[in-house]
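note to self — DONT lose this again. spent like an hour looking for the file last time. sequence + predicted structure for the chain T wanted, 267 res
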Amino acid sequence: MKLIAFPTIAIALAGWSVAAAQTTTPPASSQPSSQPASSQPGSGQSRTNPPATTQPPTNQPDTGPSTASPRQGQTSTGQQAGNPSPHSSATATEPPRGQPNSNASSSDTSATAAASSTSPSDPAPTTAAAYVSKAGASDLWEIESSRAVLAKSRRADVKRFAQMMIDHHSQSTQKVTTAAAAARVAATAPSLDANQRRMLDEIKAADAAAIDAVYIRHQRGAHDAALALHRGYAERGDTESLKRAAREIVPVVETHRAELGKLSSAR
């Protein structure tokens, strides 16, 4: 029995010694080290952690370049500071202020010039001599233009109107001349102004097919000017006999304008 016990005790003591040696010696992987695994002698295994040199020191800022966003106050590549509007390319094609638009139609200018040539631009005179002069020129143009259309027109209604113009404006000339003589205002021979001469020349130059339209168009402008002339002097004139003559002529001119409207609609 004694011979069998001793080997068993010896084996148990040997196993206890090995176990004690294993528990008292920490494994190599649990020991902290600031050196990479490759620098430890006798180590044949590679560490899974990256080398210490690739990590920045604790509590130190990262000095490496950052590509996430530009620094504050800087702009990205291809842009200028101030963040220009994306619509700048569209507004660049607009002409500067104060310069005319090259796409404007020239028809507006022509229409304006035509309107100004047939509408009264001068204020009605308030002095007797100026009124007598302008009234004489107005009557003279009506008579001469009507004679020109009578020679070429093919429309009976236009011819009747033209003859009425000759008769009525001859009468108004006589009325103004008589009133001027009563007021001892010198009356000179009437003469056409530049605009009246131009309109008369256009009527005379028109052929038989176009003369009616040219005549009616200029008659409208001339009667607008005549109405403003006589009405203005009747209200603000300086000589009573001439003011009375002007008041009598106003309704005659208004009748002419109404007749012109009928001629225009009958074309």
